[in-house]
Structure formats: structure tokens, C-alpha cells
Write a structure and sequence with these properties.
The protein contains 15 helices and 19 strands. With 432 residues, it is α/β, with parallel strands linked by helices.
Length: 432
């Protein structure tokens, strides 16, 4: 699968040739990550941090932009991460994994010494867990490149990769000579690397065709892509569809649809044409095996599934589609195909959505619509006091429900979503 890359320099999204020559610059990072995340993971690289272009606090011109992007998708982040403390901070801010470059290596190992900075890597794995660590095995002419690719060290790519695998869940291999040149990547090195290690391998640098992406997928390598995406040489839609294991599923891949809140709604099957139509319409489309035809969910009932993102499983033979359901999903009228309930299951997100709808479209007699900022704060204080005085389970449940309702109204009025709250709780959990 393809991991789209957003490289940041001087506060802009850029693409560089060989890591040096500016080829492309733009300022639409928000829209880029919204589009990229629809098809898979996104890598964000702070190039200034890698080159130590920082202020006295260790920040770069990209720092605030990077932080703003971290919870906008399944993000991995890299560029100048040199301490376990910095890695933990980035994880707490929303990154799923961190990419470690120069700091992973011992540039001048003496006889008997490791080629790796083992003290740092052991501390890193202890702090955030090996599963969250990616080590860059960037190479120039077969030797590991460091310091923003400005230097190489006398460490062989394959030998270094075998050692690095002990401290990470995946390796990111960039053929620096090919980076940004749109001439294809070093396939021989990719093959040798894939054969040498057992962990996940992501290839980058020079990949410029859909055919090469598919070839790397068949080798068992993912691709981190930049220039080819920005120049339109390769599309994420085509890459996603063509990297699926169509042979294994006889051309008909299972698609599990789940809500943004994580509730499983239904399962159907899609062929290539159905997936093309899903991406074209932004509505999940299946292939009906009984009627032998494509069908877009909701085309007759109006209860369609608005596509948020897709993810393929590790074997590339099943798709998980995150959707926003517009009405009941099941043809029986049930909210999902796995219950007989007519309505969506209660959740904080559902409560928040109802409150938002009441303010947007006030109904006659709506209590919610009458709540102004002053009154809702008074009610939060009042309900909090009643909750603390509640006696027994039933009273606690009743008063807690009241409090959550008024807290949700207050949050809506302040432009705060439950996801914002979950993100803050997640940050606090990861900081412990």
C-alpha cells in the first residue's frame, strides 16, 4: 500500500530533488492530509528539524503546522527526532509512529561496537514501545545516509537494516540518489532488503509508476510516495485498488462498513468497478452477486453510506470502510445489519449530533434551542451538584445522563467535539 508523504520546510509543503533542490512548494497541508488519509497512512516529515534549523526552544517554522496535522489521520512523523522525550511528545500529540533517522546510528563504531546508537534506541523502545518505532535506513550508494542526507557513514545498508530491525516494527528505506528524480527506485536494493529482514519494509525515493508500486507490493514492500503524487503521475485511488489481493478473493473483495464511532454496520462485496465508483461518488458501492450488478448503497432508499476512509487489512484481501451512515443501513429498516434496532445506538457522538441539529434547525418547543451560554453553564453546575448528591445506582445514572447532556451543549457552543476530548484523554494517557 502507499503511504502519502507531506514534507515540511520553512512552513510550506515541499518536494525536493535528492533532498536538496526545491522542485515544488504549496500551502494546502490541511486539504492534502484530508485527501491522503482517505486511502491510507500519511507520513509528515519536518525537514528543518532534520537539518537542525531550530530556534532556542528546539522548534522550527513547521512546528505549529505539524502539531495541527497530527490528529487529522493515521499519521507517522519524522525529521530530527533525537530523544525519547521528543518521540513521546509527538505520540501524545497524535502521531501513531515516529521515524528515527540519524539518531539511530553510531557514525563511527569502533571494533566490537554496534553500528546503532543502542542506548538511545533501548530508551526509545522502553518509552513508547517498539511497535511505534520506525528506523530509516536511507542510503547513498549502499551506505547509510545521515544528517539530512548530507553525510554517509561506513555502514552497509543490509547489515545496518538487520541490526536496526531489533529496535523497530518497520524500516523506511529511501534511495537518496533516486529521491525526487522520478526515474524509478532501486529495485535490487529493495529485494535484498525485503529478503534480509522480517519486519515491515517501506520503500521511498524515485517511485514513479503504478506498475512499480504493484511490483513492490508483490515483494511485500509498502511505498512512501511524494513527488509522483504531487505531479499526478500516480493516484492514490489507483494505487489502493491495484495493491489489493484480487487473485486471492477471485475478484470480489469483502468490504466491512463501520461508522466513525466504530459500530459495524454491514458487510458486502466489491469488485474493481465497484471500488472505482465508491471513490468517484464518495458513497460506498458494492457488487450484488444475486443480481449480478453494481449497487450503490441507498440508491433506492436514500440511506447511503458516505465514505470517510478505507483501509486494507494486512493480507490485502479485506477492506474496512469508515463511513457516515445517512439513515438505517439494513434493508429491514434496522440501523445495522447485525441488530433489530431501528435507531442508531446511543453514544456521546449521537447526542452531540442531535444537539447540533436542534441548534441548526430549531423545532417548536425545543428546550435545547433555548439554552444560551449563561444558562447552560448554570445547568452544568446544577447537574454536577445533583450528581455528587445522588444516592444509589439509578440516581447516579439519571443525574450523569443529565450532566452529559448539558456538558455536550456547552461543548457545542464552544466549538468543542467529543473527539477533541478523546484526543486530550489519549494525550494524557500517552504522557504517563
Amino acid at each position: 500500500m502507499v503511504i502519502a508523504s507531506i514534507d515540511l520546510k520553512d512552513g510550506h509543503v515541499v518536494q525536493l530533488k535528492n533532498g536538496k533542490e526545491l522542485v515544488l512548494q504549496r500551502d494546502d497541508a490541511d486539504s492534502l492530509i484530508a485527501d491522503f488519509n482517505k486511502y491510507g497512512e500519511v507520513a509528515i516529515i519536518d525537514l528543518d528539524q532534520a537539518l537542525r534549523h531550530t530556534d532556542e526552544k528546539g522548534n522550527t517554522k513547521n512546528t505549529e503546522l505539524l502539531k495541527a496535522l497530527l490528529r487529522h489521520g493515521n499519521v507517522r512523523v519524522g525529521g530530527g527526532i533525537r530523544t525519547a522525550k521528543k518521540a513521546r511528545e509527538l505520540i501524545s500529540l497524535g502521531a501513531e509512529k515516529v521515524i528515527i533517522g540519524s539518531a539511530a546510528w553510531n557514525p563511527n563504531p569502533k571494533a566490537g561496537e554496534s553500528v546503532l546508537n543502542t542506548e538511545f534506541l533501548e530508551d526509545l523502545c522502553k518509552t513508547i514501545g517498539k511497535q511505534r518505532v520506525i528506523i530509516s535506513v536511507d542510503a547513498i550508494r549502499g551506505k547509510i545516509a545521515v544528517k539530512g542526507w548530507t553525510e554517509t557513514v561506513d555502514i552497509d545498508l543490509i547489515d545496518g537494516a538487520k541490526e536496526a530491525e531489533k529496535y523497530c516494527s518497520e524500516l523506511l528505506f529511501t534511495c537518496v540518489e533516486k529521491e525526487g528524480c522520478m526515474e524509478g527506485t532501486d529495485m535490487e536494493s529493495c529485494k535484498k532488503l525485503r529478503k534480509a529482514v522480517k519486519c515491515r519494509v517501506v520503500a521511498a525515493g524515485g517511485v514513479n509508476t503504478l506498475a512499480q508500486i504493484v511490483e513492490l507490493e508483490k515483494l511485500g514492500c509498502d511505498v512512501q510516495l511524494g513527488m509522483a503524487l504531487y505531479t499526478g503521475k500516480v493516484s492514490l485511488k489507483d494505487s489502493f485498488i491495484n495493491c489489493l489481493n484480487w487473485e486471492k478473493v477471485d475478484g470480489m473483495i469483502p468490504v466491512i462498513a463501520q461508522s466513525s464511532a466504530g459500530e459495524v454496520l454491514m458487510m458486502g462485496y466489491s469488485n474493481r468497478e465497484a471500488l472505482e465508483k465508491t471513490f468517484e461518488l464518495g458513497k460506498v458501492t458494492f457488487f450484488s452477486r444475486t443480481r449480478n450488478t453494481l449497487w450503490t448503497k441507498g440508491e433506492t432508499s436514500g440511506n447511503f453510506l458516505e465514505l470517510v476512509k478505507v483501509r486494507a487489512d494486512c493480507d490485502r484481501d479485506t477492506i474496512l470502510a469508515t463511513v457516515i451512515p445517512h439513515g438505517p443501513t439494513c434493508h429491514t429498516g434496522s440501523w445495522t445489519c447485525f441488530t433489530s434496532e431501528a435507531g442508531e445506538k446511543s453514544s456521546l457522538e449521537r447526542l452531540f449530533g442531535t444537539i447540533a441539529e436542534r441548534f441548526a434547525n430549531p423545532r417548536p418547543g425545543s428546550y435545547t434551542a433555548t439554552l444560551d451560554a449563561k444558562r447552560v453553564r448554570e445547568k452544568v453546575m446544577e447537574e454536577a451538584e445533583e450528581l455528587t448528591e445522588a444516592d444509589g445506582k439509578d440516581e447516579v445514572v439519571w443525574e450523569a445522563a443529565d450532566l452529559l447532556y448539558f456538558v455536550s451543549v456547552l461543548m457545542y457552543k464552544e466549538g468543542v467535539s467529543w473527539k477533541d476530548v478523546y484526543d486530550e484523554l489519549d494525550k494524557r494517557h500517552k504522557e504517563k
